[in-house]
Amino acid sequence: KDNKNQNLRCPIVCVLGHVDHGKTTLLDKIRKTRVAKREAGGITQHIGASEIPIDVIKRLCGDLLKMLKADLKIPGLLVIDTPGHEAFTSLRKRGGALADIAILVVDINEGFKPQTVEAVNILRQCKTPFVVAANKIDLIPGWNSKEGPFILNFNEKAQHPNALTEFEIRLYENIIKPLNELGFDADLYSRVQDVTKTVCIIPVSAVTGEGVPDLLMMVAGLAQKFLEDRLKLNVEGYAKGTILEVKEEKGLGTTIDAIIYDGIAKRGDYLVVGLPDDVLVTRVKALLKPKPLDEMRDPRDKFKPVNEVTAAAGVKIAAPELDKVIAGCPIRIVPKDKIEEAKEEVMRE
Ligand code: GTP
Ligand code: NA
Ligand code: MG
Question: How far is CA 50 from CA 26, 181, 184, 235, 278, in A?
Fold first, then answer.
């Protein structure tokens, strides 16, 4: 294994946006999964998580990666899916707070809606940088949408002039203008000069796959850049995380699904959970990792038992006494001599 890259942290990417603007379908397209189609009422009700390995990103981006001025060194992306329904503000906040970078999904035809504005305000509060995925471009009248880079499909050879005009109108009226009104400079990503000052908009279709390479290239490139700038690229110390869900599992009893956003979790170490007015300390019996590209909340494959998990990652944890804990609680996974330190940390959160 390449020693130099061993400690690079996998960035956390949170996907936010109004209900039905296509967040889950977009992730399904990237993962080749069918999570959205199996959701009750077509509505996401929980936070999801899945890991996209770097080789998959590189393969999907292809030649487009030459647009990046740097080599990708991150081990992949941990993508967090959130619900867009108005009832789930707390889940959006939890997702937004975890993220190193966010993808704000906006239906380019519908434009900004209440939960789009709410998401922007959450990201502003958390100081989380974001890009906009301007989704459903296949529904722009006359647009000839096809799988692959948007940038190669955005010209007079590929599109009728009326479709190009309609695209520019929707891009401006439905996305750039409302973002300006919220205090953000924004433009089509290929027209952006300074990514630290202007929000990049990447047109996509979750149905045809158009723009997916552009989106992954920008998100991977920006995530790496922002992490490097904040010197948050190395994984160090014990694991810090947050509980997504508490679940009964056959043979394991009560387990938690958690996101580890920093550090390394080891089987046999102590799990410290901050409860509303107590702290639980218990021993980690098993760490189980979902397969790459699998959605944690709706996996195709069995989770794999592992001895160690490095941030950022989604993980299922089995331990005694987990029936006492609830979603949203902060956790630490620590060796014995760090239990007191961890207790103080989770009590402060
Ligand atoms: P919530 O999680 O419930 O907020 O919704 P979501 O943002 O995850 O949207 P979802 O993936 O459930 O998609 C909503 C509907 O839009 C589904 O019927 C999708 O098939 C459809 N859809 C999503 N993306 C596209 C797209 O790019 N083009 C078209 N034509 N339809 C899309
Ligand atoms: Na939906
Ligand atoms: Mg969804």
Answer: 13, 33, 29, 19, 31
58 near 298, Cβ under 8 Å? no
Q: Per the annotation, does 138 bind a ligand?
A: yes
DSSP-assigned letter for residue 155: S
Q: How much distance in Å is there from the Cα of 20 to the middle of ligand 2?
A: 4
Whole-prediction pTM value?
0.95
Residues 6+ apart with CB under 8 A from 49: 78, 79, 80, 81, 244, 257, 259, 290, 295, 296, 297, 314
What is the DSSP pairing of strand 12-17 with strand 101-107? parallel
Cα dist. 127→133, 226, 229 in Å?
19, 12, 14
Task: Establish whether 273 is an annotated binding residue.
Answer: no
CA of 18 to the centre of ligand 2 (A): 9
Q: Could you tell me which of 119, 314, 108, 77 has the C-alpha nearest to residue 216? A: 77
> In a structure prediction context, what are the per-residue pLDDT tens digits for the chain, which is 349 residues long?
344 445 678 999 999 999 999 999 999 999 999 999 999 999 999 999 999 999 999 999 999 999 988 899 999 999 999 999 999 999 999 999 999 999 999 999 999 999 999 999 999 999 999 999 999 999 999 999 999 999 999 999 999 999 999 999 999 999 999 999 999 999 999 999 999 999 999 999 999 999 999 999 999 999 999 888 776 667 789 999 999 999 999 999 999 999 999 999 999 999 999 999 999 999 999 999 999 999 999 999 999 999 999 999 999 999 999 999 999 999 999 999 999 999 999 999 8
Ligand 2 centroid–CA 37 distance in Å is 9
Bridge partners (DSSP) listed for residue 104 = 16, 132
The annotation status of 305 as a binding-site residue, yes or no, is: no
- The binding-site residues of ligand 1, defined as CB within 6 angstroms of any ligand atom, are 17, 19-25, 36, 42-44, 83-85, 105, 135-136, 138-139, 205-207
- Residues pairing with 256 in the sheet: 246, 317
